[in-house]
Amino acid sequence: MKKRILIVDDDIMTLKILKKYLEDTYDVVTENAGYRFVEKMGSYEADLILLDIEMPVVNGLQAFDELMGNPEVRDTPVVFLSGVTNPNLVRELMAKGAAGYLVKTIPKGELLARLEKIFTDEERKASVIEILILDNDVSHLKSMRETLLSNDYKVKVARSIIESVDYIKSHHPDMFIIGRDSAGTAPQEVYESVASVVKKEGVVPLIMEETFFTSELVDRVKRALDK
Q1: 150-159 per-position pLDDT tens digit
Q2: Model confidence over 8-57: pLDDT tens digits?
Q3: Could you give the CA distance from residue 197 to residue 158 in angstroms, rounded to a whole number?
Q4: Are 221 and 153 in contact (CB under 8 A)?
C-alpha cells in the first residue's frame, strides 16, 4: 500500500505541480487552506504532511502548533514548504519538531529522494526509545547518559524544569528520568510540578530519589517501560 502524503498550500499551481511529482509513488491528498486543514486534520490519515508556511487566515506555523497539540496526529511527520530558504527559520522549525524543510522549486528527483530519506529516518526514530533526563549532578548525569547510550537508547538532557516541559511537549520522549539533583528541587516535587504534562503526553516517568548503582539503571528503565 502506498504511503499517503497530504499537501497543504493555498497556491493551486504548487498543489498541482507537487501532486504530479508525487502521485506515481505516493497516495496524494491536497488541501488549499490552512484553516480547513486545522478543522479536518484528524480525517486525512496522512503518513506525512507537506505544509506551506505562508497562508492566509491560518498560516503553516499556526497550523503546526495546532497539530502538535492534537494527540491523534501530532506524531505525523511535517515537512514545511517555502518559496525561499531561511536558515534561521529552518533551525527554529527543526527544534520545534519538524521533519524537514523544502523550497517549493525543488526538482522532482530531489523531492522524491528527500521524502524517501525522511520516511526512512522517521521509521528508524520510531524504533528507538528516547529518554529525557533532568539531573544537575554532572557526574551522575554523565554516568546515566553513557549507560543509556551504550544500551542503544536515545538520550536528551534538560537543564531546567521549564526546558523539560518544553521538550516533552514538542518531542514526546518515551521516558522522563528525574534525577536526585533536579534543578535544586526534590525529585518528587519536580514530578508533581510536571505530572499533568507527562501524563497528557504519555511519557513514562522514572523518579530517582535514592542512591543506586548505574548498573541497575537499564533494568529500572525496562521495568518502568513495561508497566
Answers
A1: 988 999 998 8
A2: 999 999 999 999 999 999 999 999 999 999 999 889 999 999 999 999 99
A3: 15
A4: yes
Q: What is the DSSP letter of 127?
A: T
Compute CA 213 distance to the chain's CA centroid, rounded to the nearest angstrom. Answer: 32
- Cell numbers at residue 140, please? 551522575
* Angstrom distance (rounded) from CA 191 to CA 200: 13
Which domains, ranges and CATH numbers included, belong to the chain? 4-126 (3.40.50.2300), 130-226 (3.40.50.2300)
DSSP string over 162-201: HHHHHHHHHH--SEEEE-SSBTTB-HHHHHHHHHHHHHHT
Report helix, strand or coil for 210: coil
Checking DSSP bridges between strand 78-82 and strand 175-178, what pairing results, if any? Answer: unpaired
Q: Decide: helix, strand or coil at residue 138.
A: helix
Cell of 227: 508497566
| Helix intervals (H) in the chain | 12-22, 34-40, 60-68, 87-96, 108-126, 138-150, 161-171, 187-200, 214-226
**How many whole angstroms separate alpha carbon 113 and alpha carbon 13?**
22
Report the distance separating Cα 14 and Cα 78, nearest Å.
Answer: 17
Give pTM, 2 decimals: 0.63
